[in-house]
Design goal:
This protein has eight helices and eight strands, in the order H-E-E-H-E-H-E-H-E-E-H-H-E-H-E-H. The protein has 227 residues and is α/β, with parallel strands linked by helices.
Length: 227
């Protein structure tokens, strides 16, 4: 590789990290597409300049490319998110779930709020022992909802998220609703925080494990699909 090409690659990598939060132009040749979803999931409204965010319009073309590229045989989703735009997060979850190639998710620091369906959207999911996941109802801005139609919209949105999680994980409906509406764990809020193996115990996540476990599982799934 020439010095010019090396400089161009380094510049591309810096732009990837700035825009996407990850380096997509990896030097190694791999059949796996790595996608990181970190910070706040940014949807139709821009997050503040002081917030680390993942823009859903950046992730969509990567997912489309992963589906269309014959050299990509599997997708690994790395999650460390506080949540964010529920419409955008659910849209990404549906896209990931609809990929025909094997997919694995790995929850690192956290998979909170709309990060929960993102974690369960893959064919198999992992969570590291110290990671946490927060299950809670959709939050509003704190303003009083004075219109019945608005309240019904939030009810339907919550139902969409709940149905997706129940469809893509093994958690029992009664357990999920009880955890979501619990008032014993979060101060001044409703919901539950699950740590590592607790998420596995409830069937929300498949296994406790790290990066090597996620890659090993994905490679096995790719080999099985090839057969």
């Amino acid at each position: 590789m020439t010095d010019r090409n090396e400089k161009e690659l380094q510049e591309d990598n810096r732009e990837d990290i700035k825009e996407f939060g990850s380096q997509t132009n990896l030097k190694l040749k791999t059949n796996i597409q790595f996608i990181s979803i970190i910070g706040e999931i940014e949807g139709h409204n821009s997050s503040g300049a002081d917030k680390k965010s993942t823009k859903y319009e950046h992730i969509i073309p990567i997912l489309i490319g992963s589906q269309l590229d014959p050299n990509i045989e599997g997708v690994l989703i790395i999650l460390n998110t506080v949540g964010g735009d529920v419409e955008a997060g659910l849209a990404l979850s549906e896209m990931i779930n609809s990929l025909s190639k094997p997919t694995v998710s790995l929850v690192l620091g956290g998979g909170h709020s709309i990060g929960v369906p993102l974690a369960t959207s893959t064919d198999y999911s992992f969570i590291v022992p110290t990671a946490t996941m927060t299950i809670h109802p959709i939050r509003t801005t704190g303003l009083v909802i004075g219109v019945p139609q608005t309240f019904r919209y939030f009810q339907k949105m919550q139902q969409r998220i709940t149905d997706f999680i129940l469809r893509t994980s093994s958690i029992d409906r009664e357990d999920f609703l009880r955890l979501m509406y619990s008032t014993d764990e979060l101060a001044n809020d409703v919901g539950t925080i699950l740590v590592g193996d607790e998420a596995v115990k409830y069937g929300l996540i498949n296994s406790v494990g790290g990066l090597s476990d996620a890659l090993d599982k994905l490679n096995v799934m790719i080999e099985d699909k090839m057969k």
